[in-house]
Amino acid sequence: MWPSADGVSPSNGRAQARSLQTDGPAQIFNKQEITAIKRPAPKGKSKKARINDQIEASEVRLIGPNGDQIGVVPLADALEAAQSADLDLVEISPDSDPIVCKVMDYGKHLFEIKKTKAAAKKKQKQQQIKEMKFRPGTEEGDYEVKLRNLVRFLENGDKAKVTLRFRGREMAHQELGMDVMHRIEQDLIELGTVEQKPKMEGRQLTMVIAPKKKK
């Protein structure tokens, strides 16, 4: 029987096919190839720090409990140092070569992290819009009082909405309201920026000032 164009006779091809059918994955791939096939790590999940006997390394770069750099030491010595101090050996940089570990009270460390997060969450508050009403002919003393309230709003991290209402024939002199708005903007220029420029809404002129981000 003549061989095919690829140099393989039909009988040999059938023999190879039978070989592939009878051979399982372990026969087709060698051991190294099998171990190289790994499932990707799930995304979005942070790895928990390994401590004490969970650490897998022959040597580590050790940091003392007070932050002092001890240097590269055998893992056994690092564990002994932590045990002698009645503390834990915590892996803080697993991707370094060698890995970086620190001697610390791991329970206290976790408590401090939790405490810090709780404090930060408590400080967070939803930004509000506080309104202050003016008139085209607001007297100077009244203007200063209202301006101080606007300052307080911005310093507390809230937005300030300035509303100026026109009555009767005052609608014919809207430029007076614009003058008041411009003055307010200039008086608050160090604390806030105009987020919404003055605009008419019915018989009232409104403007919104947002607090400047603290550096």
Automatic annotation (TrEMBL):
The alphabetical list of record keywords is: Cytoplasm, Initiation factor, Protein biosynthesis
**Compartments where located:** Cytoplasm
Q: What is its main location?
A: cytoplasm
**MF term (GO), any:** ribosome binding
Q: Name one Pfam family in it.
A: IF3_N
The Translation initiation factor 3 N-terminal domain covers 51-118
Give me the ranges of the annotated region Disordered: 1-51
The UniProt entry, under SUPFAM superfamilies, shows: Translation initiation factor IF3, C-terminal domain, Translation initiation factor IF3, N-terminal domain
Amino acid composition bias (Polar residues), ranges on this chain: 9-33
For this record, an example GO cellular component is: cytosol
Its Gene Ontology biological processes? ribosome disassembly
**InterPro entries the UniProt entry points to:** T_IF-3_C_sf, T_IF-3_N_sf, Translation_initiation_fac_3, Translation_initiation_fac_3_C, Translation_initiation_fac_3_N
Report which superkingdom the organism of origin falls in. Bacteria
Q: Where is the Translation initiation factor 3 C-terminal domain?
A: 128-212
Spell out the Basic residues composition-biased ranges.
Answer: 40-49
Explain the purpose of this protein: IF-3 binds to the 30S ribosomal subunit and shifts the equilibrium between 70S ribosomes and their 50S and 30S subunits in favor of the free subunits, thus enhancing the availability of 30S subunits on which protein synthesis initiation begins.
Q: Which NCBIfam families match?
A: infC (TIGR00168)
Similarity comment: Belongs to the IF-3 family.
Subunit structure and binding partners: Monomer.
**The name this protein goes by in its record:** Translation initiation factor IF-3
Name of the gene: infC
